[in-house]
Amino acid sequence: MKVSLFITCLSDAIYPRVGEAMVRLLAKYGVQLDFPNVQTCCGQPAFNSGYWDEARATARTIIDAFEDSDFVISPSGSCTYMIHHYADLFKDDPAMLERAQRLQAKAYEFTQFLVQVLGVSDVGAVFNHKVTYHPSCHGSRLLGVKDEPMQLLQGVEGLEFVPLPFAEDCCGFGGTFAVKMADISGAMVSEKVDHIKETDAEVLVGLDMACLMNIAGNLRYRGEPVRVMHLAELLYEGVTQR
Amino acid sequence: MSHASTATKPKTVKARADLALNDEFLRKAVKFTTERLRLGKKNASEEHGNWDDWRERGRQIRLHTIAHLDYYLNLFVDNARANGVHVHFADTADEAVKLSLAIAERKAAKSVVKSKSMVTEELHLNHALEGIGVEAVETDLGEYIIQLAGETPSHIIIPAIHKNRYQIAELLSKEAGETLEPDTQVLAGFVRKKLREKFLEADIGMTGCNFAIAETGSMVLFENEGNGRMVSTVPKTQITLMGMERIIPSFEDLEVMATLLPRSATGQKLTVYMSGITGPRREVDGDGPEEMHIIIVDNGRSLQLGDPEFQELLNCIRCGACLNACPVYRHIGGHAYGGTYSGPIGAVLTPALNKNVGEWDDIANASSLCGACYEACPVKIPLHDMLVYLRRRKVERGHGNRAEGMGMKGFAAVAGNSGRMARALKLGKLGQKLVARDGGIRLKIGPLKGWNSYRVTPELPKQSFRDTWKTLEGELRGGLQEMDEATRDRMARIVQERGQGGKGGGHHG
Amino acid sequence: MANSREHEAWLQELEAASRVKQRTFMDGIAGKLKRPRVTEAPAHPYRGAPDFWREMEWDEEERVQRFTDNFKSVGGHVVRLAGMEEASRFIADKAQEMSAHYILRQQESELDALGLEAALPEAQVSVWNSDPDTDWKARAAEADFGVVLADYAVAYTGSITVLSAAGKGRTVSLLPTVLMAIIPVERLRTRLGEVLTGFDQAEREQLPAGIHFISGPSRSADIENDLTIGVHGPGIVYAILVG
């Protein structure tokens, strides 16, 4: 059984600690992850901006990279959902379409894999902090990852969960949107951080490093000492503290 | 009436949004109202239950009707005529205006009272009527306020969402010739009295149309104030302007729309008034219009037919739920979109109705593609996908931004190959040495200017994940746990079922 | 109208143009949909509400309760009375209480039987469309009370349905300050669909010009989302359930 890690470019370049936490946590369940070194980016920046030829080029790389995998696991709901768009990219190319659909069927976001495939909703972690959770839009709305992270958080001993007001609102990242429409995006992330402050949480946890980078960037800009973590990091840290 | 405000509007969404972002009141007002509306919708849909089944049903009815629009629209027209309605067709806004003016002139009308209609906003009909000396009076409270201000609606169902009671009191005081207290009851009371006179003396009542029922030739209006009933009952002549896609087959189908529309719009179980109007007054009736016209308007709608990416736009029932759910709309308000329709639906509908790629402005860029609009939509229109299709078409037709196009080519070259990506990363790490402090970059120049005006950018770590992989893998290989048998079996089963065409595992909830 | 013949001719001219345009309009739609014109009714497998919904039916007590709750929740008033005699007394009492002088009612035998004229000797009670020389719209506009008999009511949405006819003016439920709607309890249905499907089943020719569902007093939230009652339609609405 070949279970491959789709690290995503952001976790690869900026947040390797997220990939490491995932790898170490899954190893506890006997999952030996494989890492195809040829993988790159899912192509979402180009796809969302309307540059589909360019998106197709990266999609091909990803499809090639995971051709032989049985499961493909990623720390991002957004990048996982991007794989669902490969069918749009190759709708006029039957051979590629078939490969794209095969990849889609085996692509999982990290918590989906943990809960749905491994059947784990309590990793036995301890985490004595006040935590709030931001559900990223693509993961929760489009990929439908809603219950899994909540189950996993509920299983953590000592964790005090505070619901985030207007949690479902977008943090304002949106890829190139944050650059093209910087002021609107800035207003959105500022509002998100206002809500985080309302919770008094010490830790903000999420499932997508792009959104978390955005939020963490604003928290730091405003000098707010909230720690920002991917759920995989929180769970792994909680397991090692046991 | 002043129309100057539209002439001085900045040209781009970005510039208009900047204006809105600097308007503290506007942001607060829009935020307050949209939050209330979306909470109302959430409560109403949860209380009703099985909401996704209803959405799916609504979607199917709309898909079916639009897929057979020639049949149903034709049936509607034949039935409406049999009911005594004079039916007209307008391919363009111009034609619709000409028809409306011709009727007004023929009737020697001095005044027209109007209930809320987004189609007439598309046509700028009030302006045209005034041009031939006919007074056009908006009678929906919000529309009336906007008309007095010489503005356009900034929300599909709450047109004056951006105005506060003080601004409204000022406008209405001018109209009243006396100072009115900024009290909602006082202001609404004045409008009731003032417009009551207008209803009674108007020659023509003009309405939009929420739904038109093919099998009976009836037109249906949803409203809360009673002005829709007024304009379709009191004046001797009624003119209804309807988009050609407003059709549903039957009254039975109306139950589904009546379940979805008010709940999605305001969280109501039903609007205070839902009226089905089937032709002009019968001969024996004591009231109702003597003459009734329905003008069926295309104005770019048919361009969506047969376009697999945009046909579903015609399913829209104009509830405004996508505006209330949209975080971008909440911050910039409706006027920033620069068209008749605002919010996510406006961002797609405006360019789609115009099919004018070169002038698409940057309207489709005003979205983070968060999908809140899709989730809110009672007929499940994938607006977030459509925004991407718009962006793609703009690029494909050579109207993309050149710098961005070059950037994307570069992106593809780098992201299409892991070796090049690793080298690019190395360059980045070298470059950041000049600008990073304490693990963060605060520089506000170049591409980082906008981003870093609100954030600190994280520094790239010394080693990327792929740099550490070999070590990590080696370390873990030794101490790997044995996978338990049940999990192993489950995984094998998932892979096997997938091969047999079963649904992939970790997908849509 | 002196030029009515001329007007008729003008309308006919428009109609001729419209009929020509109708064909090109529909052909245009079919062309864009890339198929021939559809001229036979297509199968519509998703007609109306989902099946599970059609099975819902409340007993009379629950219908009354739900209707009452819904109607009150939007600011309407609901009373339940044993018979028409009590209804007459209720309306008369309310008229006295609110000093209503002008009362306009629909021309229906059930409302004749109310005997409002006798119960309110000081008020002017008029009967819709009972005399061809009266300006009935003006009567409705000046009325304090409009009294109507509901054709149906719907518990799930808290709605009253009124249909127009010679003796049943649309303005009677619209222009007066207060609306008094008498609802015989047996006309109260559970779901909206029960009333709506009736309009499909009736022949098109049988439909009245105006079908109105009224779910409470007229309202608006257009000023700072602050609820205002009685913007254009009646601001006070009584649903009088009888039986």
UniProtKB/TrEMBL annotation, chain A:
One of its GO terms (cellular component) is cytosol. It comes from the Bacteria. GO terms for molecular function: oxidoreductase activity. InterPro entries: Cys_rich_dom. It holds the Pfam family CCG. Residues 3-83, 131-215 form the Cysteine-rich domain. Signal peptide: none annotated. This is (Fe-S)-binding protein.
TrEMBL record, chain B:
Signal peptide: none annotated. Pfam families: Fer4_8 (PF13183), LUD_dom (PF02589). Keywords: 4Fe-4S, Electron transport, Iron, Iron-sulfur, Metal-binding, Repeat, Transport. Residues 306-337 form the 4Fe-4S ferredoxin-type domain. GO terms for biological process: lactate metabolic process. One of its GO terms (molecular function) is metal ion binding. The keyword Metal-binding applies. The keyword Magnesium does not apply. This is Iron-sulfur cluster-binding protein. It comes from Paenibacillus sabuli.
Automatic annotation (TrEMBL), chain C:
Pfam families: LUD_dom. Residues 64-242 form the LUD domain. It comes from the Bacteria. This is Lactate utilization protein. It comes from Paenibacillus sabuli.
